[in-house]
Amino acid sequence: MSKRRVFDIDFPSEPQVFPAGTAAKKPDEKPADARRGPMATAISENADALRARAEAEQDIRAENDRLAHEFVRLKKLGLVVDRIPLGMITMKKLIRDRKDERDPELDELKESIKAVGLSNPIRVEAKENGQYELIQGYRRMRAYFELLSETGDKSYAHIPAGLVAKGDSLQSLYRRMVDENLVRRDISFAEMAQLALRYAEDTGTGAETIEDAVNDLYASAGRQKRIYIRHFAQVLKAVGDDLKFAEAIPRALGLDLKKRLEADAMNAQVLRDTLARVQPSGEEAELDVLRSFAEGKRKNAPRAPSSPRPGVAKTTLRCTVPAGTVRCQARDGKIEMAMERDFSEIDRHKLEDAIAAFFEALEQED
């Protein structure tokens, strides 16, 4: 037997009287939310939650797209850096002119890396097989190899590397490699010419002549500089294999050699025979042979080293400071200091104080 529910009904104690011509007021209506049932409320709340989630997902996708574009932009600029195992880096795509002889600056570079780390990462291009192709930084990578071998420190098994975006042409990759070295004040015309020769030999570059190679590689250099590089390239093409210290040839001597070699087709063989007969043991001895040839003189035997001529004496040295290695050259009335740093960014007054302190230190008595 079901039970009946009993509801209490409150009746007014006295009847309500309304003025004539007026209607009784309806009870106050409840808000719409109060009138909705539990199901309608749940559906509304779920819709609001879905809408908020969709907006959040859209914001996340927009941020991811922005970050992806920023990553690609930085990667194209070579500003995305990672630590890459040395064994994963190859050097097959670009031809380099590197001799097996000891690099006198490599020890200084290694000491700098041990002291402050590698401040300028190498540049690599990712390959399809998961390896990387070296674009810039042969000496830096070689220094890491030697440090790993000498110290056994596993931290040198990985090298900081900027990731170059894929898709660059072979010519563009060569330009990246060259432009980094082109800003060095001490890079010789012979070194630039040798790379131009190797570039012309690479069938993938499309350069058919030395002139094409020089124009491709050194497009950012001035016209006169490109002419000098071409002249040196012609000299090296004729006798380069017989030269041990080509990078020491000054510009004027290189131009004189080019003229002498062009004067007679047999002169190249004459110079090669002279170098083979004399077998100069050092840089100055080889330059002595080249000067004699350029002047049209026959060189029969190496001369003993002579003292510097008056007016051309100079002192050359290198020193390591916290900011890097400084190359110095001092001569009568002139001193030059060069290092990999943009000194134009330094405040003028700070430079003036540094120069004044430098000369003040020179004048101090021991």
Automatic annotation (TrEMBL):
Residues 39-66 form a coiled coil. SUPFAM superfamilies: ParB/Sulfiredoxin. GO terms for cellular component: chromosome. Pfam families: ParB_N (PF02195). InterPro entries: Chromosome_partition/occlusion, ParB/Sulfiredoxin_sf, ParB_N. Residues 25-36 have a biased composition (Basic and acidic residues). Residues 87-182 form the ParB-like N-terminal domain. The keyword Kinase does not apply. It comes from the Bacteria. Residues 1-38, 294-314 are annotated as: Disordered. One of its GO terms (biological process) is chromosome segregation. Keywords: Coiled coil, Plasmid. This is Replication protein. It comes from Leisingera methylohalidivorans DSM 14336. The lineage of its organism: Bacteria, Pseudomonadati, Pseudomonadota, Alphaproteobacteria, Rhodobacterales.
